[in-house]
């Protein structure tokens, strides 16, 4: 982009930095006029059902009565954009983003970031069960969006409701139910196939659902065949080729035992396999010795996730509860990353020719399982004073197990001899001991309606957590110094308080204080290995403490028949951040690194969201997010830049044709005065702002057959996402591997019986 265009985009952002205040002032001044607007001008909008969310209080609450900031991605949004992965899923949510990482020559979606903080500091749930943790080389893209009817995002500290890892927020995936498709007594069947050019993904799925008087069930299966995500055509590099497939299955059975109780069974499975050709591994390596030439490198990655749950829901007006549910669950996530190489060893230098030919096979696993149960009660009370209480309380228990076995073997092609020693590293090994984490909790939340104008939310949770490492001979291979391990037995209280007050019939103010924490995990507490090639080691830290957060948020929310808007300011302090630091030297001079409670971070910012309905078939939405941050008193540059998301939804032919246009405007990457890159001495990459445009159309060809098409990044803009390249140097030879796709196309056909 030329300098004039960049200048124009910068001016646009200067305007939007002050736009939120202008919006609020204009809305407040115009409330009385808007309230008198003719309801006929907006068609049926006045009769629309208010959107309900659960994540904010663990009970159903109308969106306009939520205290705090909540994001929602509904089924219509997922379907209209033909979403296929985690990055696409959150693309329309302000303040929420997904970063991309590279490890072991693979590119992958790493984790979810909420208001500039992500990774393991965001709690991710599917139907209330924790989704597998992110680990180097794997990421958290573990849920097929085809299974989902809804995603709810709680922004800000959330441990008072959901416990550990709720430092920055919670993402709740909610899977489909039989009643989402089938009317009583009917069988619903649909077949769907789609194509996404950004990864040459072909997706085919079938859904069956039935709802009878007492019995409802759904069975959904989806198959993905895809390749590595494409880069912009102007990229100087090509990503390592990948061909993969993924199959997901959701089966759910719901049976009404009687008028007041229901039993539900859920099976949720996902299996994927990716075959990689890794040319970035190929070539001469001069360090560590001896000199090695890799002539071939192939990889195979496998992920299996299985979830089983049973839930019993019942109701009855008693002194202690009006309704309750009891749930038991088990989820396992097993991941394997295999790499096979062919090498020539030059023991006497490259001029003397190879002295050894060998094949090398590695298999790095990361396996985890979570099982547990929960019981939750709900009770509504109406006091004689007119005060209403909507209480929810319960108990939770979960047991999580982790392991990281690593296998690597080389075979001499000529002699057939084998070896499991590579540059001082001995295989098989484990970088951390097998670990069991147990968490138990009790929580209470009360939504109190004082009168027609004021509501309060009170929340308190007690968490007890135990981390127990189980060292074995494979772990001791890397823990050569027999360092003391961390056995953690601790607890935490987390609180939340919020207030909502109606200033007028169309304007409300809300404020809240919320706390979060993240207990040390298997990796940060007990990671242990020695790298003799680069002369450093990582040691466990038995003195590690939990990370903590406390956040304040204040906002305004308003609405009339044709417009709804909200504006929120937030300020969150994070303490005892767990990061690696140089803590000493061994007797042999190896540097010792440990995870320690090192940093204090403060992030503040604001968000604005507004939806304007011009008629029953035309509406627009705008979302704005801007963050500011400090780390140990200095400017925090890892935060995402200011973003503005615009959407236009139009139905020119009633229910037969719908068109959606999306614009994403992203400001320049935050200034970074420190040095970047692996050496910490290179000039930092500067990322310019950009704007992308997407458009989607959905047309009902017949009553049963529908077609969708979409074009993303219509202008073919070349750009990097800041959160994926933050900290990288401008001369990084692999920087183009993080470029986003250029102009891409999507299409879908669906037939419903």
What structural class results from the helix and strand content?
mainly beta
| Main β sheet profile | 22 strands, antiparallel, barrel
Average of per-residue pLDDT values? 90
Count of extended strands: 40
Oligomer: single chain
The DSSP helix count reads: 7
Helix content: under 10%
Low-confidence runs: 1-47
Gap between N and C termini: 49 Å
Tell me the Rg in angstroms.
27 Å
Structure description:
This protein is mainly beta and 753 residues long. It has a domain at 639-753. The chain has 7 helices and 40 strands. A hairpin with a 4-residue loop joins β25 and β26 (454-470). The longest helix is centred in the first third of the chain and has 33 residues, at 3-35. The relative contact order is 0.12.
Topology (elements, then pairings):
Layout: H1 3-35, E1 52-53, E2 61-62, E3 70-74, H2 75-80, H3 86-89, E4 96-103, E5 106-114, E6 122-126, E7 129-130, E8 148-155, H4 159-162, E9 169-175, E10 186-196, E11 201-211, E12 215-227, E13 242-258, E14 261-277, E15 283-285, E16 291-315, E17 323-346, E18 356-382, E19 388-403, E20 405-412, E21 418-419, E22 421-422, E23 425-426, E24 429-430, E25 434-449, E26 454-470, H5 473-476, E27 488-504, E28 507-518, H6 522-526, E29 529-531, E30 536-538, E31 547-559, E32 563-585, E33 591-615, E34 618-631, E35 634-635, E36 643-650, E37 657-666, E38 690-700, E39 705-712, H7 722-725, E40 744-752
Parallel strand pairs: 6-9, 30-33
Antiparallel strand pairs: 1-2, 3-8, 4-5, 6-7, 8-9, 10-11, 10-40, 11-12, 12-13, 13-14, 14-16, 15-16, 16-17, 17-18, 18-19, 18-20, 19-25, 20-21, 20-24, 22-23, 25-26, 26-27, 27-28, 28-31, 29-30, 31-32, 32-33, 33-34, 34-35, 34-36, 36-37, 37-38, 38-39, 39-40
